[in-house]
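Fig. S4 source data, part A: sequence.
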Amino acid sequence: MPWQRDLPYSVTVSPLNKEEQARAHSQALLSTLGSSFLAIYSDASSHPSGIGIGVAIAVFDQLQAGSEVCSQQKNIGDSMLVYNGELEGITMAFEYAASLPSPHHTIQVYADNQAALWRLMTPSDQPGQAWQLRCIKAARQLQARGSSISAHWVPGHTGVHGNERVDGLAKRAALKQPSSCLTSLAMTACRVKKIKSLEWMDSLRAHRAKAVQKNSGTYSARFHLKTPKTLPLPLSTPRKLSSAFFQLKLGHGYLKAYLFRLGKADSPFCSCGARQTVEHLLLSCKWLKEERKVLSQDLNSKPLTLPLLLHTSLGIKATLTFISRTQVGTRKWHLGELEAE
């Protein structure tokens, strides 16, 4: 029930680093030899030649000197993510343990995907709930028989035998014929995002084609098309500085050539005599010659261009420093120029 927040199993993600946790895991496993202890490893993987996500579990019985007593493989199809496969693998381990005729008092499931473990640790109706409900059901069956089950993080590719074994099984399972045609919510979100990006780029290309025909100096014609998730500025950038940057990038700001076109300035010319445009201020104005040398040094003496200064991570950082140092493109700088005239 939604209000029942207590889980009939525990999940542990060790704070140790990979090497330390691998050693601790191996030592702990050695101490359980000869006891009624079942170690189940789970993993999921894709393969370049595969047609889906391979999932596998490998079961080791410590009562039988830690020998492998069972393994299972399946392919959940290409409409799932590897993350979904990790959840499926852990759930397969829980359900396998619940299906055993004779109870093992202690059962531990090991997985190398921390995100999947955290999801199963958190009661929620978010994506992944179906796997969590299956784990809850299996764990309650085990509890009723006097057994306990828990899930633990074990680092991948660190020489842990069980994890290496199940990793190979999962990769081979990715080459098998899928046993499911279900589509996960996460995969649906990825597909929607891809379609959205394609439509956005199509719209931008159409806009750019028209812009180039009308004026080759427009923003769309000048810069390569990008569809970033966030503004390409450091998070600590002050608002006034970021405003000046984007006004320069768009060419719509405190620039005399732009203001003159709008009837907001008496002349389009800089005090040095050239038209005061973005290109002029950032690339050639003689009054900013020394500051431009510093800007070039910040960029490892690369040739200064507008795409470099306004459209790359390194260039944007250097340009923000240049604007902060010179105040170029800000209202304060513009008013200072008018007073000087």
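Fig. S4 source data, part B ends here. The radius of gyration is 31 Å.
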